[in-house]
C-alpha cells in the first residue's frame, strides 16, 4: 500500500511525500503524482523518509520521473532516501540519475562512496 501527497511549498516549489511500499503495483500512482508535480513546479522534492520498500518497478517510476523533470528543465531532488532504495540505486548504477539531499538513517554510506 502506498500513500502519495503533494504539498506546495512556494509559488514554483512542492514536496511530494511517499509513504509505504513502492512496487510495480503502486508505481503508476507515484509516477503520475511526480509527472504532475514536475510539469507544474520548477523545483520538486521527493520525500521518501517513510518509504518502507521499493522494487525495480518503483525504481523505474522514479527514473522515469527524473527524466521527465530533466526534459522539462525542472529539478527533482530526493530527500530522506531509505536504505531499501539506496541499495537499488547502487545495484543498478542509478545514483547519478538523482540529486539526493539526504538519507533517512544515519550510518548509511553515500552510494557514491562505495
Give a topology summary.
Layout: E1 2-10, E2 13-22, H1 27-40, E3 43-54, H2 56-71, E4 75-79, H3 83-91, E5 99-100
Parallel strand pairs: 2-3, 3-4, 4-5
Antiparallel strand pairs: 1-2
Helix pairs in contact: 1-2
Polypeptide structure, described:
- The chain has 114 residues and is of the alpha/beta class.
- It has a single domain (2-106), classed as STAS domain (Transcription Regulator spoIIAA).
- 34% of the residues lie in helices and 33% in strands.
- It has 3 helices and 5 strands, in the order E-E-H-E-H-E-H-E.
- The chain has helices at 27-40, 56-71, 83-91; strands at residues 2-10, 13-22, 43-54, 75-79, 99-100.
- A 5-stranded mixed sheet has the order 1-2-3-4-5.
- Helix 1 (27-40) packs parallel to helix 2.
- It is globular and about 35 Å long.
- Mean pLDDT is 90; it is low at 106-114.
Amino acid at each position: 500500500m502506498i500513500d502519495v501527497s503533494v504539498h506546495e511549498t512556494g509559488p514554483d516549489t512542492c514536496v511530494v511525500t511517499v509513504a509505504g511500499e513502492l512496487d510495480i503495483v503502486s508505481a503508476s500512482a507515484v509516477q503520475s503524482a511526480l509527472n504532475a508535480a514536475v510539469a507544474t513546479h520548477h523545483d520538486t522534492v521527493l520525500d521518501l523518509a517513510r518509504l518502507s520498500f521499493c522494487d525495480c518497478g518503483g525504481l523505474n517510476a522514479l527514473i522515469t520521473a527524473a527524466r521527465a523533470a530533466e526534459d522539462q528543465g525542472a529539478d527533482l531532488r530526493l530527500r530522506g532516501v531509505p536504505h531499501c532504495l539506496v541499495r537499488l540505486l547502487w545495484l543498478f548504477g542509478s545514483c547519478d540519475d538523482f540529486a539526493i539531499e539526504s538519507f533517512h538513517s544515519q550510518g548509511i554510506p553515500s552510494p557514491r562512496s562505495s
